[in-house]
């Protein structure tokens, strides 16, 4: 299992970004480039990832294809098409956006119109349009689940995948965004397992060496691990050589410590006192 995220910090090009990557010790990252990045610069970012055995896990879109302004909505769809083409061309498995909203409170805002039958049909049409125009052969277009936007549950996501009916439409696993009611909040392990059981076969990720398409259901292991059953198969991310020498063999223990702290956080979410929860969250943030 690779631990990763978006590399944070100010950078003006691949060299500065690579230093931030090493500092982050991530083993999977969101793409630091987009469809407007010069090809030579994109290649430099990709080469930096290869040097440190870091997977570019997704190309982000992050816009509102249902923007109330028709011109902005059309531009958002055009950008999504270009980003999906970019993901396909650069060998990134996942291109991710949100479904979109016709509301006026923000590009990712809660709005009662988000759950109407009309919006559901618009989502189907927009996803089909983006995939059909981009014609990806390797990358998959996905929608990040949202607490107040479709898809907001594993069952809704599965039905949406069936209704879109495009082989290059897959699942983006963000179970935290679907913990949007007391039942899921109070029993997160059960819900996490449900997410991986139902959506695991639909998660499209980078294929392991020797496997052709990355659609295997290995992600169930991650669900069991996060739910507190099973042990992690962590591999450490890139690290400064001097720091690595000082750390010695403590890396694996540190990874296990991280996992234990995540599990404790889930337990505190269910029953811990507010002060204890806050102290635990601060300790994770400051580590």
From TrEMBL:
Stretch list, region Disordered: 202-287
Keywords from the named record:
Isomerase
Spell out the Low complexity composition-biased ranges.
243-254
Q: Cite the Xylose isomerase-like TIM barrel domain residue spans from the record.
A: 37-179
What the entry lists under InterPro entries is as follows: Xyl_isomerase-like_sf, Xyl_isomerase-like_TIM-brl
Natural source organism: uncultured bacterium Contig1588_n_1603_cl
Name the chain's protein: Xylose isomerase domain-containing protein
GO molecular function: any one?
isomerase activity
Biased composition range(s): Basic residues: 276-287
- The UniProt regions of compositional bias labelled Basic and acidic residues, in chain numbering, are 232-242
Give the lineage. Answer: Bacteria, environmental samples
Top-rank taxon? Bacteria
């Amino acid at each position: 299992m690779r631990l990763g995220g978006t590399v944070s910090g100010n950078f003006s090009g691949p060299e500065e970004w690579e230093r931030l990557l090493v500092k982050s010790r991530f083993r999977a990252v969101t793409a630091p480039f987009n469809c407007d990045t010069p090809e030579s610069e994109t290649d430099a970012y990709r080469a930096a990832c290869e040097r440190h055995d870091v997977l570019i896990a997704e190309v982000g879109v992050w816009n509102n294809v249902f923007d109330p302004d028709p011109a902005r909505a059309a531009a958002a769809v055009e950008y999504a098409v270009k980003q999906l083409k970019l993901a396909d061309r650069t060998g990134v498995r996942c291109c991710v956006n949100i479904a979109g909203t016709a509301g006026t409170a923000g590009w990712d805002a809660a709005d009662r119109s988000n759950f109407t039958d009309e919006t559901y049909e618009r989502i189907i049409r927009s996803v089909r349009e983006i995939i059909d125009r981009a014609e990806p052969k390797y990358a998959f277009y996905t929608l990040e689940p949202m607490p107040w936007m479709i898809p907001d549950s594993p069952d809704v996501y599965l039905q949406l995948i069936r209704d879109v009916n495009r082989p290059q439409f897959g699942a983006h696993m963000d179970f935290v965004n679907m913990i949007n009611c007391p039942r899921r909040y109070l029993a997160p392990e059960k819900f996490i397992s449900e997410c991986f059981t139902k959506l695991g076969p639909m998660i499209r990720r980078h294929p392991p060496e020797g496997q052709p398409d990355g659609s295997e259901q290995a992600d169930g292991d991650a669900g069991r691990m996060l739910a507190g059953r099973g042990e992690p198969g962590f591999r450490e991310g890139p690290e400064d050589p001097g720091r690595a020498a000082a750390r010695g063999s403590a890396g694996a223990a540190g990874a296990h410590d991280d996992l234990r702290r995540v599990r404790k956080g889930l337990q505190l979410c269910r029953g811990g006192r507010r002060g204890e929860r806050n102290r635990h969250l601060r300790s994770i943030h400051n580590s």
